[in-house]
Specification:
5-stranded mixed β-sheet, single chain, 31% helix, alpha+beta, 19 strands
């Protein structure tokens, strides 16, 4: 809970100003020694109290010379705050009576959304709970919103999602000038480390989005994960990359490029962050931005946006598909399905006609095929991803505005924005250029966890976030192999955690921490991590990993391992530093050339020794993964194990048991839309982990999209 005391009235028998000042400083010091966190209260929540009476008058300090408050007064204050938090009103849920003594915001994003709504309605300055907030903001409403959102840009995507869920986003976004919207977007992009989109907005790249072999037919279109690279069609209107996931009723084209970019990218960061960080999203964004700078082309393509009835005379071909009714809540036993006649007109547009019936909606398949490179042989596609017909296409139907947030004052849940997309097999006349992943919509988040806490035996899983942060995973590996691997940070965290468990510890697969990680990643627990993994034929350990190791990693002796066309260079400590597949078996000159990346050519190369390697092996407990993903983890995990063993002071000559020394930590975890809080008992803290620094608070981690905090206290 965010704790701050704005005003404390003090009554003293002394009337002189110096005495009042000294008493005020002393009371301020005593209050700073009090732990105002109520037991069982979310650490990321903000509780604003209008008036809080002294729970034990004249009992704040035991004597006149005490430097710390009394334990009894602290417990009484916590008890009073707990009672106030239970009765606190929720501005996010609706009307708040003016005589309310406390209001509650689950996190900072909810506070930003409510502040923007009240400022635009003109009621903010008449509401007592905004007085302390508005003191640090400009006087005008729009300038105040811009200032607050720029200051807390990391929470803007979640705030936008909440405003969309209540149908208030368009009024807020429309109030910004294009320059203000662009300023907020730049702050958001900087916070989430996607500054390349800002550069593309100002100077969209003049690049071609055609496949390398432009003579390929539609069936030969290459894909990376679920990302299709197709030939540009000048007759098809260029759509923004978020158009596949959010309808025009949520992000109208009339908003303009700056406002549309803020709203579209913000919602994508909240709902589908994996897509936003990909190279193909940047390509589609640059393509759309370039089209907005060409008015003649926009006018030329305006005919494709005409109403359906105006194109009734066009020649059409028919097909039928089924989509689930968006008005019915997700996860229902029996979904109402609308049968629609899909008619491709001669001008390339799509006509939708039909009526509803009751059926089960069909599953939407995905397509994952790795793109080959010019000098490396391509592997098979991931085994975990089902294949899809190359002729399948994806279209989007406008959806109705999402329902308002529930009016329950105790509710802490937020309805998820469901992208409405349908897939069908037909003979499409036109394929949208530079399509971004056409994966099925993510399932709604498990509302049982949002804003709530749960107990776990594997609290140490979150300590691995510091490992991923220090190694800059997975981005550092993607930079080395020059490829989007299609794996998110939350997925990689789960995979590493499962691989560090021993097969005998399979009972830990039922721990709720796995469900929480899937929730934070925006997928269902039935979807294993790495489903959209796009493998590479080339993996290499970044050079900074070796130079920044806590213990020296010598490269004087390297071992060569060749299995057919696959070349591997291994370190004597038992981890690979290079894995590359060539078109044929690599020659000795090729091996030396690859080794020069790590050394000056003086390294001793020797054949691979089939000795026991305590850090090798890849067996994620409780799930099955495809062969390409296993190969990637088999390359990455040995080095991670060596670094963990060095940090924890474990011997390198035998296989360490990380479950007992690191992962098995009983804790309570709080999850909100923007925060993850781990609460542990300080008495159970491990000395090895404390000395290694793995339990240091990560704070804001852009790749995870959350503020992650570790709390240690008595009785947590």
């Amino acid at each position: 809970m965010a704790g701050a005391v704005a005003t404390v009235p003090i009554r003293s028998r002394r009337r002189d100003p110096d005495s009042r000042l000294s008493v005020g400083l002393r009371v301020s010091h005593l209050l700073n020694t009090v732990d105002l966190q109520p037991p069982g209260f979310s650490p990321s929540a903000t509780l604003i109290i209008r008036r809080f009476r002294d729970p034990m008058p004249r009992q704040l300090q035991p004597d006149a010379w005490a430097v710390h408050s009394t334990t009894a007064w602290e417990r009484a204050a916590q008890s009073g705050l707990t009672e106030l938090s239970r009765r606190a009103a929720r501005p996010a849920s609706g009307f708040v009576p003016l005589n309310s003594n406390a209001v509650l915001f689950t996190d900072q994003s909810e506070l930003l959304a409510c502040l923007a709504r009240d400022l635009l309605s003109g009621s903010a300055r008449s509401l007592w709970w905004w007085r302390a907030v508005l003191r640090a903001l400009p006087s005008t409403a729009v300038d105040a919103i811009v200032s607050a959102w720029r200051r807390d840009a990391r929470y803007v995507p979640a705030a936008l999602a909440q405003l969309v869920s209540r149908g208030e986003a368009l009024s807020v976004i429309s109030a910004f000038t294009p320059a203000q919207a662009l300023d907020i977007f730049q702050e958001v992009a900087s916070s989430f480390e996607i500054g390349n989109l800002c550069s593309l907005f100002h100077q969209p790249l003049q690049i071609s989005f055609r496949p390398r072999d432009s003579g390929k037919t539609l069936g030969d279109i290459r894909s990376v994960g679920t990302i299709h690279e197709v030939q540009e069609s000048t007759s098809n209107p260029t759509l923004p990359p978020w158009d596949k996931f959010f309808s025009d009723s949520i992000i109208p084209p009339a908003l303009g490029p700056e406002r549309s970019t803020l709203l579209g990218v913000g919602l994508c960061l909240q709902e589908i962050p994996r897509i936003v960080r990909g190279r193909h999203f940047a390509q589609a964004f640059a393509h759309w931005r370039q089209s907005t700078l060409q008015p003649s082309r926009t006018t030329e393509n305006a005919s494709h946006l005409r109403p359906i009835e105006q194109r009734a005379d066009s020649f059409i071909t028919e097909d039928r598909l089924k989509i689930s009714d968006p008005a019915r809540p997700p996860g229902a036993q029996e979904a109402r399905v609308i049968e629609i006649e899909v008619k491709n007109a001669s001008d390339g547009s799509v006509v939708l006609l039909g009526s509803g019936s009751s059926h089960h909606p069909p599953a939407l398949p995905t397509h994952e095929v790795a793109a080959p490179t010019s000098d490396i042989v391509q592997q098979d596609a991931p085994e975990t991803a089902p294949a899809r017909d190359a002729a399948s296409s994806t279209i989007k139907l406008p959806s109705t505005p999402p329902p308002p947030i529930p009016g329950d004052a105790g509710s802490t849940t937020l309805p998820r924005i469901h992208p409405l997309s349908v897939s069908f097999s037909t003979e499409p006349k036109i394929i949208a250029p530079d399509a971004i992943p056409a994966e099925s919509p993510s399932p709604p988040k498990d509302n049982a966890y949002i804003g709530e806490s749960f107990q776990t035996e594997l609290g140490g899983i979150l300590f691995l976030i510091n490992v991923l942060k220090a190694l800059d995973l997975p981005r550092s590996i993607e930079t080395e192999c020059r490829r989007d691997l299609g794996i998110s940070s939350w997925e990689l965290l789960e995979l590493l955690g499962r691989c560090l468990l021993a097969p005998s510890e399979s009972h830990l697969t039922s721990d709720p921490v796995w469900e929480a990680i899937a929730l934070l990643d925006g997928r269902s627990t039935a979807t294993p991590p790495g489903t959209h993994f796009a493998p590479s034929n080339f993996y290499r350990i970044p050079e900074p990993w070796i130079s920044s190791a806590s213990a020296p990693i010598s490269l004087e002796k390297l071992q060569i391992r060749q299995r057919g066309s696959l070349l591997e260079l291994w370190h004597p400590n038992g981890f690979p530093i290079l894995s590359r597949r060539f078109a044929k078996q690599a020659s000795l000159d090729t091996v030396r050339k690859e080794a020069k990346y790590f050394t000056d050519g003086s390294a001793e190369l020797s054949p691979f020794q089939n000795s026991p390697r305590p850090h090798a092996g890849c067996h994620p407990v409780g799930i099955r993964i495809g062969k390409p993903l296993r190969r990637f983890l088999a390359f990455l995990l040995p080095y991670v194990r060596v670094r963990l063993a060095q940090s924890l002071g474990l011997p390198l000559d035998r296989r360490p048991f990380f479950a007992k020394s690191l992962l098995l930590q009983r804790a309570k975890i709080w999850i909100t839309k923007t925060h993850v809080d781990l609460m542990m008992d300080l008495n159970n803290a491990s000395g090895r982990i404390r000395l290694s620094g793995l339990d240091a608070t990560p704070g804001w981690v852009p790749s995870f999209g959350h503020v992650i905090t570790f709390h240690f206290g008595k009785g947590n």
